[in-house]
Amino acid sequence: MFYVEPHGNAHILRGHASAEDPLEGSVEKWQFIVDWLSDNPDEVLLNGSAVTCSLCYEYGIFSDHDDRWSCAGCPIAEHTGHAGCRHTPYDLYCDDPSLANAEAELCFLRRLQ
Questions:
Q1: Does residue 97 contact residue 45 with C-beta atoms inside 8 Å?
Q2: What angle do CA 17, 2, 9 make, to 5 degrees?
Q3: For a Cys-Cys bond, which of 12, 41, 44, 93 suits 7, CB 3.0-4.6 Å?
Q4: CA–CA dist 88, 104 (Å, integer)
Q5: Where does the chain show beta strands of DSSP type E?
Q6: What is the rounded radius of gyration, in angstroms, for the C-alpha atoms of the chain?
Q7: Please, which pLDDT band fits residue 8 given cuts at 50, 70 and 90?
Q8: Around 107, how many Cα atoms within 13 Å sit in the side-chain half-sphere?
Q9: Are 34 and 99 in contact (CB under 8 A)?
Q10: 16 vs 8, 38, 74, 96, CA distance in Å?
């Protein structure tokens, strides 16, 4: 379950996905972000980064894989050839946490399903 907390002049996403499938959990996270930004158009929402990402827990920095910094097995890393969600709309959202960039990340993840 995701929720939002105040964070300085912005808000930050907290919590975790309820979906068992990590990719579905990531879609759930970004759907929450899109919905929240749609309802709060004048606010900034920081995405909570890897701490709120189901894929990072399964394949990335919070996993128990020997090579956890490579994101080995993550559908995003396999698609892009890069670890850490580089070269995805996630990069854009980190630079500019706008509704348009959140929607782009959500669409990107849905294409991977």
A1: yes
A2: 140
A3: 12
A4: 9
A5: 2-7, 10-15, 45-46
A6: 13
A7: confident
A8: 8
A9: yes
A10: 22, 20, 18, 22
